[in-house]
Amino acid sequence: MRDHRAELEAIIRADPDLMRILRLLREFALPQGRLVAGAIYQTVWNQLCALPRGTGIKDFDLIYFDEDVSYEAEDAVIRKVAAAAGGFRFPVEIRNQARVHLWYGQRFGGHYPKLASADQSLSLYAATAHAVGASLEADDRIDIIAPFGLDDIFDMILRRNPALPASASYGEKARRAKAIWPRLRVVEEAALGALPSPAT
User: Fold this and answer.
1) What is the CA radius of gyration of the chain?
2) CB-side neighbour CA atoms (13 Å) of 30
3) Do 36 and 133 contact (CB within 8 A), yes or no?
4) What is the largest distance, in Å, between two alpha-carbon atoms of the chain?
5) How far is CA 155 from CA 98, 106, 173, 179, in A?
6) What is each CA distance from 200 to 169, 172, 195, 196, in whole angstroms?
7) Mind listing the pLDDT tens digit for each residue in 87-139?
8) If DSSP codes are grouped into helix, strand and coil, which group holds residue 66?
9) For residue 76, which of 89, 64, 60 has the smallest C-alpha distance?
């Protein structure tokens, strides 16, 4: 059996952009701070498909968990991180997971639970492969969390999170991913064909 965790750590360490953002996140010492989702699993897919580094990556998604759920506190963090990451290759987006439930319904519709930790948010990501996070610890160890495991990332499988209902936005993400990484196997791919095209 392949040691996907060791493989993922090696891939992260070999990518200067990922290491740079992880070092920045460590410097800010935000509670439960992690780099999550696309920048990680898409870096793996690029390596598996021999595509240029950064292919398909739109931004660096960072999360943290602060019990001060005021807009002002989060906005101050967003501004500080944006100022420090001005020269980065991709935009950086950071959100306090302790306050997502306060705005999610109004912005996206539906219910979002009040979370007890930043890591809990990964269990609510649209696909199992999306649910991965990493942080750089004080001793330079890379801590990885993946509530659904790492097999789907390394097997290039996009599988809808079974805890979440199907949605048009998931279908759009799946189509975009398949166009960039043709080797990707989209589970329930036939059902996605019935969803409206992003162009309609």
Assistant:
1) 17
2) 30
3) yes
4) 50
5) 32, 36, 18, 17
6) 13, 11, 10, 7
7) 898 999 999 999 999 888 788 777 888 999 999 999 999 899 999 999 999 99
8) coil
9) 64
